[in-house]
Amino acid sequence: MTIVLNPVWINGVQKLKVVPQPPPRPARGLLPPAMDEATHTVRCLRQLRSKDKNIEKYIYLTQLKDADHRTFYKLCLDNMSEITPIIYTPTVGDACLQFSHIFRRPEGLYISIKDKGQIGKILRNWPRIDEGRIAVVTDGSRILGLGDLGLNGMPISIGKLSLYVAGAGIRPSSTIPICLDLGTNNEQFLADPLYLGLRQTRVPREEMTEFMEEFMHEMSTIFPNLLVQFEDFSTDAAFTYLDRFRQRYPLFNDDIQGTGAVVLSGFLNAARLASQAAGKELEDQRILFLGAGSAGVGVATQLTSFFKMQGMSEEEARKRIWLVDSQGLIYDERGPMAEHKKQFSRQDYSGPPMKNLTEIIEYVKPTALLGLSTIKGAFNQSVIETMSRLNARPIIFSLSNPVQLSECEFHEAVQWSAGRVIFASGSPFPEQTHDGRTLYPGQGNNMYVFPGLGLGAILSRASAVTDSMVEASSLGLADALTPEERAQDLIYPRIERIREISAQIACKVIRAAQRAGVDRTVELRELWDDQLLDWVKAKMWMP
Ligand SMILES: NC(=O)C1=CN([C@@H]2O[C@H](COP(=O)(O)OP(=O)(O)OC[C@H]3O[C@@H](n4cnc5c(N)ncnc54)[C@H](OP(=O)(O)O)[C@@H]3O)[C@@H](O)[C@H]2O)C=CC1
Ligand SMILES: CC(=O)C(=O)O
Ligand SMILES: [Mg+2]
């Protein structure tokens, strides 16, 4: 790669900045004479659209990225709403299910339990050690709502990092997709001769913890400027390793914290719309969750922390929240429960176990119903009609992924609420027409948050990802709606604006890092907000 040293001014001091230059065009004769970048992007889009099946589109895009990543990212940036559902949810779910069958060429790092004791040696095989800035790490134990997919979880790490590049301009060469192979309990995969992972069941937790300790230690030693995103670990592992490592290394868990941030943001905009219809204040909000796993509890925690920021006591804040898991409403008298659920267990209910969701809604009278349960169709007609009877504008977020696990589809929510629903889903749904009006679903997916959060953490060289940084990303997203988007009742900005939004979020995250004293790019403290925004934008990689 060619390197050019550009003079830049930082705080009145001129410094030389290393600017990697695009590779020179191939020598004359090695490209057809009429080959130019703009037409080639059109050519690639046509080839993509000629494929009938989404998984074929996924394979095509994977190969395009491998062969010519600039064209791949140009295509992504120019066609975000068309490409995102292919490289990310829902199609990435199919790609994970079929990974060992559709595999062409390796991408990313595979580290298995057999590497325990020599993980550093394996990490040093990464070809671009000095450039590493962000790793998305999964152990494949809970991929979307699809369960334990073992090594087949790798496309999740790859897909998330593609969104970091497309959505926040993170340099492609600085991204490291990682899949940890600690075995799988997926019997179908273990019996599949093409399965690419170890043929063994998952190792016990103590062994996993020893492995994770070594892994994180070696990662921080070998990649000193690396931010780590934990992704799609099973519930207990997700909470355990976030708590264990977050004070020691710059890392966050996307399912707990990224989801918390994105849902808080959509909820705030939804509550504003609902209050215009019913005059309800934030203190009147009552939020019912279906699903009390890493995502459900992550979102409940983020909402609680926001309510406290608004002046409520801890107790008042928690009183706004009810959780339902596979056993029904969570309450103290129900008996022993997993640690992460305890803080939201209701003390004020002591009746018989309540399992039927419509009955629970009648009891709780929620203003918002949030689904993070992986149960397709759980928000049935009776559920949505009950929510619509209780609320002028019911807030219904059907957040489970991929699309086939969504608690309800947008057209159902529109029909059963007579067009009154304020809706978001984890995977995208098409817009609907109701009574001559076009209604748009929001995509309540952490993809709106993690690119900007990661960019801010990387650029500030944060030594830790604090709760305040996560919260800043959420409020930054909530504020990012344009007047036009607000006029259309949108609760999330249009995905086409993701770069602009990520830059704004990154600035808020940098400021939060500074306030928390975890930033290490200290010269940014001197910049005014508009200077910081320009600086962040200038840092973004363009294909
Ligand atoms: N939109 C977004 O940005 C995101 C969406 N998600 C999606 O959310 C879903 C859940 O993820 P995550 O929380 O990490 O998964 P977990 O496995 O940690 O949690 C799943 C939760 O759903 C509950 N559940 C299972 N079956 C039922 C049922 N029949 N009725 C009520 N609750 C039930 C489980 O209950 P129990 O505790 O009793 O087992 C558990 O509390 C996934 O589909 C995932 O793709 C996740 C992250 C981000
Ligand atoms: C979006 C996401 O992170 C999930 O479904 O797990
Ligand atoms: Mg996830």
Q: Overview of this structure, please?
A:
It is built from 23 helices and 16 strands. With 543 residues, it is of the alpha/beta class. It has four domains: 49 residues, Hemocyanin, N-terminal domain (Up-down Bundle); 145 residues, Malic enzyme, N-terminal domain (Rossmann fold, 3-Layer(aba) Sandwich); 187 residues, NAD(P)-binding Rossmann-like Domain (Rossmann fold), CATH 3.40.50.720; 93 residues, 3-Layer(aba) Sandwich (Rossmann fold). A seven-stranded mixed sheet has the order 10-9-8-11-12-13-16, sandwiched between helices. A five-stranded parallel sheet has the order 3-5-4-6-7, with helices on both faces. The chain has a two-stranded antiparallel sheet with strand order 1-2. It is globular and about 75 Å long. The mean pLDDT is 95. The structure holds NADPH dihydro-nicotinamide-adenine-dinucleotide phosphate (NDP), pyruvic acid and magnesium ion. The site of pyruvic acid has 9 residues, from helix 12. The site of magnesium ion (MG) has 4 residues, from helix 12. Belongs to the malic enzymes family.
**What is the level-2 CATH architecture name of the largest domain?**
3-Layer(aba) Sandwich
CATH-level-4 superfamily name of the largest domain? NAD(P)-binding Rossmann-like Domain
Estimate the strand proportion: 5-15%
Largest beta sheet: strand ordering = 10-9-8-11-12-13-16
Mean pLDDT: 95
**Overall geometry:** globular
Question: What is the percent of helical residues?
Answer: 40-55%
Unreliable stretches: none
Radius of gyration: 23 Å
The fold-level CATH name of the largest domain is Rossmann fold
Tally of distinct domains = 4
Bound molecules: NADPH dihydro-nicotinamide-adenine-dinucleotide phosphate, pyruvic acid, magnesium ion
The major β-sheet equals: 7 strands, mixed
How would you classify the quaternary structure?
single chain
Distance between the termini: 15 Å
Number of helices: 23
Total DSSP E strands? 16
SS content category: alpha/beta
- Highest-level CATH class of the largest domain: Alpha Beta
Keywords: Metal-binding, Oxidoreductase
Protein name: Malic enzyme
Pfam family, one: Malic_M
GO molecular function: malate dehydrogenase (decarboxylating) (NAD+) activity; metal ion binding; NAD binding
